[in-house]
Amino acid sequence: MSNNERRQVHMLARAYNLKSTSLGSGENRSTTVTKTDRTFIPNDKRYIERFISQAQQTVDATNALSIKQQAMMAKQNIYGPPTLSKKEKNKPKDKKERKKENAPKEVLQSRVVAADAAPISDANVGHRMLAAMGWKQGDSLGVTNSGIVNPIEAVIRQKGKGLGTL
User: Fold this and answer.
1) Phi-psi category of residue 142: left, alpha or beta, with phi > 0 → left and psi -120 to 50 → alpha
2) Which of 18, 72, 20 is nearest to 40 (CA)?
3) Residue 137: CB partners within 8 Å, gap ≥ 6?
4) Are 6 and 22 in contact (CB under 8 A)?
5) Pick the residue with more confidence: 131 or 158?
6) Do you know which InterPro entries this protein is assigned to (predicted)?
7) Most exposed residue of 26, 47, 60, 108, measured as fewest CB within 10 angstroms of its CB?
8) Mean of the per-residue pLDDT values of the chain
């Protein structure tokens, strides 16, 4: 089914309040139309004729725009690629490039994250729960106090390196 035929099916489906979807790509592209709760058959043929004429006007306007754009592109290609001003050359082209420009220029590698953070207060639920089980601040976790004493540090690492690198 061609693009224009598929577009017409979708427009007619909209006129009757049917749900239409297109699946697949290339030669295997197909359209599925399903009935909804709001699907109806109009009593007046003028309703469908009016809907089709409005849809045709929309299609004609879209085609006219695309023809105009194609003509502009062909005109640009005759003379080679368009030249950009210095401002346009230095301007970031897409969202990713703009984010890169606004990002901090220097990332501090091997820096401990939140090294100056305050310890968890005594009012914290987890702190109170551990204290109720016999833990005191400064002790390690475990039955025989054989666990780690120092807190685990989160370190900024270089992008693309493994977890074991600093």
Assistant:
1) left
2) 18
3) 119
4) yes
5) 131
6) G_patch_dom (IPR000467), R3H_dom (IPR001374), R3H_dom_sf (IPR036867), Splicing_assoc_domain (IPR051189)
7) 26
8) 77
Would you say residue 83 lies in a domain? no
Examine the domain organization and report whether 106 and 65 are in the same domain: no
Residues 103 and 70 in one domain: no
Residues 139 and 145: their CA atoms lie apart, in Å, by 7
State the amino acid at position 122 in one-letter form. Answer: D
Which structural domain range is residue 146 located in? 88-166
The helix (H) or strand (E) run that includes residue 32 is: strand 30-34
Same domain, yes or no: 108 and 143 = yes
Same domain? For 110 and 74 the reply is no
Residues 36 and 108 placed together within one structural domain of the fold: no
| Same domain membership, residue 152 and residue 99 | yes
pTM of the model: 0.36
**Contact, 108 vs 156, CB < 8 A?**
yes
Separation between Cα atoms, residue 151 and residue 117, nearest integer Å? 12
User: Which range has the worst mean pLDDT, 4-18, 90-104, 105-119?
Assistant: 90-104
